[in-house]
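On clarity, I found the account of how folds are encoded harder to follow than it need be. What matters is that the chain and its backbone geometry are given together, residue for residue. The format is easy to grasp once an entry is in front of the reader. For illustration, here is how one protein appears when written out as sequence plus structure tokens.
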Amino acid sequence: VPADHDYVIELQEWLVRDGLTYPSMPMEGGMPNFFTINGKAYPATDTIPMKVGETLKVRFIGTNNGFVHPMHIHGGPFEVVARDGETLSASARFLADTINVGPGQRYDVVWKALRPGKWLIHCHIPHHTTNNNVEEKGGGGLMVVIEVG
């Protein structure tokens, strides 16, 4: 499905303890406390520049996660156009503002910039946007900004 911009979001979970970083596991003592998109935590994640009227295709990938991440985009709904590498037929596509991305899953969504502003892509689980409950510049972890001019 064509769009003016493409952006991949790989969701990752980590366990940071005593200054060391480990892959997290959904088990006692291995639960994640640090979350990254493409290896970076907000505010170090990318800012996606766009203009009003342009479209953005986001590919959400659960690459290093043991939990579901409800990924949300502010500024209007998006259209889910593909799941797990298969393009959905036009009749199977649907509008949403949040999609649950599980371990190993992939979703392609197309979002249209309806008006100027800074619009957030983020996980809707608060713990996943604070990174060990320590916010930086208004958040942390699974957050990306779309800047529409």
DSSP finds no helices and 13 strands in the chain.
